[in-house]
Amino acid sequence: MQWKWMCSLVVCAAALVAAQDASQPEGPAQPTGPAKHGGLFSRKPKVVLSPEEEARQKAEIQRQIDVLPRQGAPILDESGKQILDPDARPMFQPAPRPLLDKHGQPVLDEDGKLLLQTKDHLGYDAHGKKLKAEKEKIPKKVPVTIEQGTLTVDGWTGKARLNYEIDDLKYLYIYAPGIGNTVVSTLPFPGATAQKNAFDGKTLTISVGEHQLQIAGEKPLLHQKHPVPAYVLVDREYSRESRFPVMGYGPLRRAPYAWPAAKAVETRAPALPKEVMPVLARPAETPGKQP
After folding, report:
1. Using an 8 Å Cβ cutoff, are 122 and 287 in contact?
2. Cβ(192)–Cβ(233) under 8 Å?
3. Residue 74, domain member (yes or no)
4. Would you say residue 213 lies in a domain?
5. What share of the chain is helix, strand, coil (3-state, %, to 5)?
């Protein structure tokens, strides 16, 4: 009985609402847009433009895109000097790019100005795929220690008492007159060839044609127990105003190279032992001439 009574009540209420609607005079249709204060699913009504206005807007957007710089700002170090990449080319920030929506269209602000991508907001690509910032991988550091080291070329001492404490080795330079500059790294790089077991404990031994370059110290050069290959590139066109071999390190693998000063570097080779000192030959006697 209770169920029948509830159904009757619903039917009566529906009939009363229909009667009230029929008694109201017809008038203009009420807008069906979103409420004044909006809602979770409310949408901004799309503005319909005339073909001429739409063409003008597209032309203005294209004009703003065309005037964007083709190259970003230069990347500077702490001293304000432009940073070079490993191939000695100036480095720049990425060129500014327009921010696109999920439909691949440029996004404008309220004044019609083109919005640009930011580091944290890349927007979408032309196909509607959301762009995500790539996480920068921090490369593993390669510390190198050279304590009381000696640089030899073909067994001859070119420089002694070398002391280097390198926090992160990028490229090691060994310059020798008549050979050029030899660039060495523990990682592969363009143009370099691998030499197995070059870093072996306290020594680094490199072959350049028929020549052998070696650095030897009192402590292991790399913080590793097993031998490590070296990747070597020889720049035979490079020359320095030096009659003796020169050693350095830096972030460039092309000229101009960086040659920072080492700690307590002895510029002259140690004196040779007396037993190997050269002895001048006596002039040959002329027959018939008294000494």
Report:
1. no
2. yes
3. yes
4. yes
5. 15, 30, 60
Beta strands per DSSP E along the chain: 144-153, 156-166, 171-176, 180-185, 193-200, 203-208, 211-216, 228-235, 246-250
Does the residue 50 lie in any domain? no
What's the burial of 201, exposed, middle or buried (CB within 10 Å: 0-12/13-18/19+)?
middle
Q: Tell me the backbone φ, ψ of residue 65, rounded to 5 degrees.
A: -70, -40
**pLDDT tens figures, 15-65:** 665 555 555 555 555 555 444 544 544 455 666 778 888 888 889 989 999
Residue 88 included in any domain: yes
Task: Show the domain range for 194.
Answer: 144-267
In the structure encoding, which two tokens stand for residue 139, read together?
Answer: 């490369």
Other C-beta atoms within 10 Å of 84: how many? Answer: 17
Contact between 158 and 151 (Cβ < 8 Å): yes
For 249-272, the pLDDT digits (tens) are 999 999 988 776 544 334 344 454
Amino acid letter, 58: K
